[in-house]
Design goal:
about 425 residues, alpha/beta, binds nicotinamide-adenine-dinucleotide, binds 2'deoxy-thymidine-5'-diphospho-alpha-D-glucose
Length: about 425
Amino acid sequence: MLIARSSVSDCIALSLQKIVPMHDVTVSRVSARTWPSSIGPPATPYPAFEQDTFERKVVWRIMTLTNTILVTGGAGFIGSNFILRWMTSSATPVVNLDRLTYAGNPENLASLPRRDLYELAHGDIADGEFVAHLLKRHNPRAIVHFAAESHVDRSISSPGEFVRTNIQGTFSLLEQSRLYWQGLSQSERNAFRFLHVSTDEVFGSLEPQEPAFSETTRYAPNSPYAASKAASDHLVRSYFHTYGLPTLITNCSNNYGPFQFPEKLIPLMILNALEGKSLPVYGDGSNIRDWLYVEDHCSAICAVLDRGTPGETYNIGGNSERTNLEVVTAICDIVDAAAPRDSQEPRRNLITFVADRPGHDRRYAINAAKISRELGWSPQETFSRGLRKTVDWYLANNDWIQRVRTGAYREWIRKNYTERETQ
Ligand code: NAD
Ligand code: DAU
C-alpha cells in the first residue's frame, strides 16, 4: 500500500482522530511510527468495513476527510448509472446507502473501476441510527438522494410503501443530515450539499397546448407516487429555509437507458418485443412523456451538485416529447432490425391496447432553460440514438435480465397485466 508510514504526519493524525471515536479506540496523539501496533484493527459493527485491511481503512479515512459523497438508492437504475459515471470520472470515495428493495441490484455496479473507493451500506434511509452512524464514519461532503419507491403503477396498488420511503424516509434522512451538518466546521458547512433527486410528476398533467413545466409551475401531483415525491420536495425546501441546510432539488422527466428495471415502459416493451409477447399500451397510447437518456440526467446532477445555488430547484428534461405509441413502435422497429423474427412478422403487430392507468397524466414536458442558462447543461443524446443504445444494452445483457426477473417480478407482471387485459 502506497502510504509511506514515515512521511505521514498531520494527515494520519488527523485521520486517526476521525477513526478513533468511530471505533471506540482511545488514542489521544498517535505518531506515524507507533500507530499500527498500538491501535490494532478497529472494532466495527459493520461487516463490509471490518473485512478490510487496517491499512485500507486508514487510506479510506484520509480520503474521506474531504471528498466522500453519500449516494442513496445507488443500486437502482439512475443511482447506479450516476455512481458508475462519478467514479469513472473522479477517483473519490462513494458510499451507497441502499435498502436493496426489488429495484436495487448491486450487480449494476459490478464494473466499477475503483472498488476500493466504493462501499455499499445496506440499510434504510428511514433508519436514523444507521444513517447517523454512516455520516459520522464517512464524513461526506455531499448527499445525493435517489432512494425512493419509483413506479407509478405500484403506487396505485400499494401507496403505503411510497409514503413510508419517499416521505418518512426523506424526512428522516434530512433530519440526520441536519444534525450532522450542524456539527461541521463553518467551512465544511458552507461546502456541504444535500441534492434531492425528484421528478416532473410533481407538476401534474399538461394539456397539449400548455407550456412545458418550469421551476415556477405550481405543484399538482396526481398519483400517490407523485404526491409522495411532492411532499419530499416540500420537506427539502423547508430544511433550506428553516435551518439553512444547503439543499438542491432537481425535477427530471422520464429516463431510459441501461439497468432500468423492466417494469417501466421502455425496458418492458424491449423485453416483450424480443420474446414475442404482447405489448400492453395503456389507454389509447396518446399520453406524452419527455424522454431523457439516463447519462444526460447524471451529467445534469453533476452540474447541479458542482455549480447549483443552494435553495434552488432545477428542471431537467430531454426536449424529446413522444406519445407512448410512438415510443413503442420505435422500439418494435429497432428490435425487428436487430433481431428479426423467424416469421418476419413485424413486432408492431404485438401492440395491444389495455385498460388505462387510473388518473393517467396526459402529458409531461420540461422547460430546461434555467439549468441550461445558469449551469451550461444540455442533453447530449438524441432519442433515436439513445433508444438504439438501450435496445443494444438489453440485447447484450441477457444474464442481467434473467437475474432481475425473479418470482416477485413475475408476480407483479401477473398482477398488473392479467387484470388489465381482462378489463
Ligand atoms: P429505482 O426504483 O430504479 O431505484 C430506487 C433505489 O432506491 C433502489 O436501489 C432501491 O433499493 C432504493 N431504495 C428504495 N427504498 C429505499 C430505502 N427506504 N432506503 C434506501 N434505499 C431504498 O428508481 P430510479 O428510477 O433509479 O429513480 C431514482 C430517483 O430518481 C427516484 O427518487 C425517482 O423519484 C427519481 N426520478 C426517476 C425518474 C425515472 O424516469 N426513473 C425520473 C425523474 C426522477
Ligand atoms: O416523469 C418522470 C417519471 O417517469 C419518474 O418520476 C418515475 O419514477 C418513472 O417511473 C416514470 O414514470 P411514468 O409513469 O411516466 O413511467 P412508466 O415507464 O411507468 O410509464 C411511461 C408511460 O407509459 C406512461 O404514460 C404509462 C405508459 N405505460 C407504462 C407501462 C409500464 C404503458 O402504456 N404500458 C405499460 O406497460
